Amino acid sequence: MRIYSHYIDGHETDGSQAQASLPIFNPANGEEQARVALASKADTERAIDSAKQAFDAWSKVSPLNRARVLFRFKALVEAHMDELAELICLQHGKVLEDARGELVRGLEVVEFACGIPHLLKGEHTEQVGTGVDAWSINQPLGVVAGISPFNFPVMVPMWMFPIAIACGNTFVMKPSEKNPAPVLRIAELLTQAGLPDGVFNVINGDKLAVDTLLCHQDVQAISFVGSTPVAEYIYSKASAHGKRVQALGGAKNHMLLMPDADLELASNALMGAAYGSAGERCMAISVVLAVADVADALIEKLQPKIAALKVGNGLEPGMEMGPLISRAHLDKVCSYIDSGIQQGAVCLVDGRNTLADSEGFFLGATLFDGVTPEMQIYREEIFGPVLCIVRVADYDSALALINQHEFGNGTAIFTQSGELARDFCHSVQVGMVGVNVPIPVPMAFHSFGGWKRSLFGPLHMHGPDGVRFYTRRKAVTARWPKQLSADFIMPTMK
Ligand code: NAD
Q1: Active site residue 215
Q2: How far apart are CA 45 and CA 42, in angstroms?
Q3: What CATH number belongs to 253-435?
């Protein structure tokens, strides 16, 4: 059986030598398809050391030549799109077209990073004082590390490493132990594109590997994406070890549905946003706040669409929703359905009846009505294909609910009123907002990040914030005087 191992110094290490490993399941049939080696402390230190050795030479490569490696990498990913999409399907379970979409969204960050010569430009002021010039420069940090979740095995790592290495840093990636194959293939393609050995390394593993990255003195910055409890842990531990940290956490994304919205458009948007990728997206809509009397009409629109949803193996043509990632996660999502019913919500569609005989980790689309803010299914992130309808009296009470929720990743308003939409964009306490757009993931040249307990740290991911995160500024003040006299007062510009 294939044992996926680590990618250090330009090649994959021998997985058969690993002291510990975990199974990787095919979520579509429940079978163990491979194993993943778990890095020891020494393995992780070797990857950090490889990145450290590569840093000096890589940081001196001109930004233009660093960008040229990324141009070649982009072309290689495009040439291997089908192979990569299949790998994602096999280890994650999402449907093939969705996996392609993930790759395209990741490549957009590579395209953005190809503009690094422009993005790294500093500011220059001639004559800040008489005969004195000043400028700023943006320099790389050194070795930086990324830790990613299972739900976007390629896109989330691509939020991080293209910009990091374009800025001149070297990288250690720790992908999810549930689906490591796509990132290992990405590492090979980077090498093939001409990236020097050691600039991009992959460590597979669990808490031991992560803790080694968080505490190691040669790691300068940590980018994390995953659940909120782990994000909080990463943020506090890495910060305590003096590192720059951006830690993106969980979500509970609301759609605010006004009675004037186009319900055909809104219900189609909801189908994709709630059930696409089996709801395993941090930007999935999991709550609809149905204002006034719009809920009944919405349910009428949704029910036939849910009945027609094609659930099955993501590799089969025409499928719209695949399985969940693991048996344990399936059980957890099912326990939320139990909890919703026990706490008095009305389960209009129970997805537990879909493909119930399959050995795969399937759960059909589930729809709850009559959900109230006290219920567990409203308060907690479910991360599955479960959509909750909360009936609210008016716009103000809907807005207040969103603003009171502990998470603030994404949200959307569906309305025909420009005035209301404008107020919503201004007033809502959430990091990413859609107006008639259900999943408002910013494009690569903007930055991605939530508010409240959906993000820890000041900077969002990719876009301008990505460049800021992976560089540090230096300000230079220079003059070429003929003579200098001793000055004992605080210097001021003349
Ligand atoms: P997770 O938090 O379980 O794992 C994320 C990463 O952290 C993995 O690489 C894992 O190995 C590591 N990890 C897990 N437990 C750890 C621990 N105790 N100590 C150190 N490292 C640990 O998340 P997941 O289940 O892989 O992904 C789903 C979660 O990610 C959801 O909560 C989802 O909302 C979130 N997510 C957020 C965003 C965002 O942009 N905010 C994007 C994608 C996913």
Answers
A1: no
A2: 5
A3: 3.40.309.10
Q: Indicate whether residue 213 lines ligand 1 (CB < 6 A).
A: no
In the chain, where the domains are located: 2-249+454-476, 253-435
Q: Which of 174, 183, 222, 225 to mutate to test the pocket of ligand 1 (most atoms within 8 A of CB)?
A: 225
DSSP state letter for 7: E
Nearest to 162 by CA among 118, 197, 195: 195
* pLDDT per position as a tens digit, 70-117: 999 999 999 999 999 999 999 999 999 999 999 999 999 999 999 999
Q: Name the closest-CA residue to atom 35, ligand 1.
A: 226
> Strands, DSSP E only, in 122-259?
124-129, 132-140, 143-147, 170-174, 200-202, 219-225, 244-248, 253-257
Per-position DSSP letters for 426-463, written without gaps between them: HH---SEEEES-SS-PPPTTS-B--EETTEESS--BSH
Q: Provide the whole-model pTM.
A: 0.97
Provide the pLDDT for residue 481. 87
Query: How far, in Å, CA of 51 to CA of 71, rounded?
Result: 22
> What are the tokens at 397?
């009470």
Span from the CA of 401 to the centroid of ligand 1 (angstroms): 26
Closest CA to 199 of 244, 237, 168: 168
pLDDT by residue (tens digit) across 298-327? 999 999 999 999 999 999 999 999 999 999
Q: How far, in Å, CA of 107 to CA of 96, rounded? A: 17
The CATH superfamily of 2-249+454-476 is Aldehyde Dehydrogenase; Chain A, domain 1 (3.40.605.10)
Which of 44, 94, 176 is the best mutation target for the ligand 1 pocket, counting ligand atoms within 8 Å of the beta carbon and taking the most?
176
Give the amino acid at 343: Q
